[in-house]
Amino acid sequence: MRWDIFCQIVDNYGDAGVCWRLARSLSSLHGQQVRIFCDDLPTLNLLASGSDEALGHKIDIQPWEASYSNARHPVETPDVVIEAFGCDLPERYLAGLFIAPIKPIIINLEYLSAEPWVAEFHAKASPQSHGIPKYFFFPGFQEDTGGLLLDPIPLEGGQVAHLVPQSLKSIWLKLRSGAKRISVFCYPGAPLRKWLEDLASIDESVDVLLTHGHAELLNLCSEKTIALPSNIQLLSMPFVSQDEYDWVLSQCDFNIVRGEDSFVRAQLAGKPFIWHIYPQEDRAHEVKLAAFLDLYLENASQELRLATIAAMTWAMPSEWLKSLETWDSHSKAWRSHILKTQGDGGLAARLVRFIA
């Protein structure tokens, strides 16, 4: 089938990351023909840059405005149109669908949530005045939701340690033997300076891998540079592709992630992590975080529950780091649980079956 995915980038990388991962899953695993229309091609192309070249040629990446070029409709009417995260389709594109001899199915792909109500609304029809069938599709952790994006399923960290991406080789040479590794990818509102200063008070060597732009967040390039003792080493990474970032997550002992794509990838890496969920004015993010933690910690001990909740709400590392070993075992068990519950192929496979 032919699929058009519409992606408007609201939060730098996350929206593009999900759309690209879905496109590659549909193409490489399910043999679908996929076009992506995106309003920020430079970001999307950066994320896709590390993918297999043959895969890249299969997925047609287009600027947003190309979707309503007169030359494209109704000749190339797709079978499925995906509105990623509820973005509105361009009016001229929609007009082309009206006159198409065979109408596509429109999917409103929602944000991932562990909230219980998701299952009730997943796959429900959204009747439209124009008559083109439209449905809500909710990604989720439970079997009666849209599932998770799994492609590619990462190998265990130790299995790929020697495969250092070219873009990261100079950074990896600076890592110290025996030091813990922490990757950092968070929103500007996080208390990162204070968090790192507290981490430095613990008598342990830690190499902190800062994703692109985080050095500026910490003012490392100004006179207000953060002063840390020698047991903490800050390493600033270049912008890396989606696959390369997945690899980094697998090689760290602890990860700080944000958004939807890195949130799922951190879980699939099987490592402890902080999910810096996108803050919303109505504090809806707190409800979403609590719903996830209810699932994530369902089988955890009381001690680990308290430590994990403290870490996820930005308590200082000295308050919970002693539980890291137990948390690591729990993370591996959670990874196995996810792969078992998503054994039907996860979101991409469920979406293909739903359309069929």
TrEMBL record:
Coiled-coil portions: none
Catalytic activity: dTDP-beta-L-rhamnose + L-arginyl-[protein] = N(omega)-(alpha-L-rhamnosyl)-L-arginyl-[protein] + dTDP + H(+)
Source organism superkingdom: Bacteria
Signal sequence extent: none
InterPro entries according to UniProt: EarP (IPR016633)
GO function terms (MF aspect): protein-arginine rhamnosyltransferase activity
Keyword Glycosyltransferase: yes
Keywords: Glycosyltransferase, Transferase
Entry-linked NCBIfam families: efp_Arg_rhamno
Family: Belongs to the glycosyltransferase 104 family.
Function field: Protein-arginine rhamnosyltransferase that catalyzes the transfer of a single rhamnose to elongation factor P (EF-P) on 'Lys-32', a modification required for EF-P-dependent rescue of polyproline stalled ribosomes.
Protein name in the entry: Protein-arginine rhamnosyltransferase
Lineage, highest ranks first: Bacteria, Pseudomonadati, Pseudomonadota, Betaproteobacteria, Burkholderiales
